[in-house]
């Protein structure tokens, strides 16, 4: 129940941006969108952000490709794919905090994280590694805390 509520809060709090006629992608997001398009077409599976030899971009490119396959190519499917990946990270943070402070407190702590103004935009930015890092950190934190409590 708590996880569903967190995903709903994440989506509803970002609806004004997602429904805006000014939903535009910046240059880096366009590059990641191109990477996602190549993954969706089966042309390439890049590990790094195009033009770079660092920065794990394959996870976000794959998420974007899935969004394109489901909903077509465009800014909205790409932003929603990033929000989905970011929301998975929120789920891991919730689970990690639940191990320490219980589900109810974890819900409120994680809700505060979801509603922080900085995440309003960055939770949907396809920049090639930032959301992957956020989600992976949540997953690792959960695994570390869970293994300590076993």
Please render the helix and strand layout as text.
Layout: H1 2-12, H2 15-18, H3 27-41, H4 58-71, H5 75-101, H6 103-115, H7 117-122, H8 130-149
Helix pairs in contact: 1-5, 1-6, 3-4, 4-5, 5-6, 5-8
Q: How do the SSEs run, as a string of H and E? A: HHHHHHHH
Mean pLDDT: 95
Cα distance spanning the termini: 24 Å
Supply the number of structural domains.
1
How many DSSP E strands?
Answer: 0
Tell me the helix content.
over 70%
In the predicted model, the low-confidence regions spanning at least 5 consecutive residues are none
Describe the structure.
The protein starts with a helix and ends with a helix. The radius of gyration is 16 Å and the shape is globular. With 150 residues, the protein is mostly helical. It has helices at residues 2-12, 15-18, 27-41, 58-71, 75-101, 103-115, 117-122, 130-149. It has 8 helices and no strands. It has one domain (2-149).
Features:
mainly alpha; globular
Short overview:
This protein has 150 residues and is mostly helical.
């Amino acid at each position: 129940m708590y996880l569903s509520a967190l995903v709903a809060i994440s989506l509803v709090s970002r609806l004004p941006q997602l429904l805006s006629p000014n939903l535009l992608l910046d240059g880096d997001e366009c590059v990641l969108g191109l990477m996602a398009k190549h993954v969706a077409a089966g042309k390439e599976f890049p590990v790094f952000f195009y033009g770079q030899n660092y920065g794990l971009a394959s996870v976000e490119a794959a998420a974007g490709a899935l969004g394109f396959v489901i909903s077509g190519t465009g800014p909205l499917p790409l932003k929603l794919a990033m929000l989905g990946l970011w929301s998975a990270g929120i789920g891991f943070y919730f689970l990690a905090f639940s191990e320490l402070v219980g589900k109810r407190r974890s819900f409120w702590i994680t809700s505060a994280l979801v509603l922080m103004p900085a995440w309003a935009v960055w939770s949907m930015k396809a920049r090639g590694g930032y959301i992957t890092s956020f989600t992976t950190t949540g997953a690792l934190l959960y695994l570390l805390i869970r293994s300590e409590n076993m």
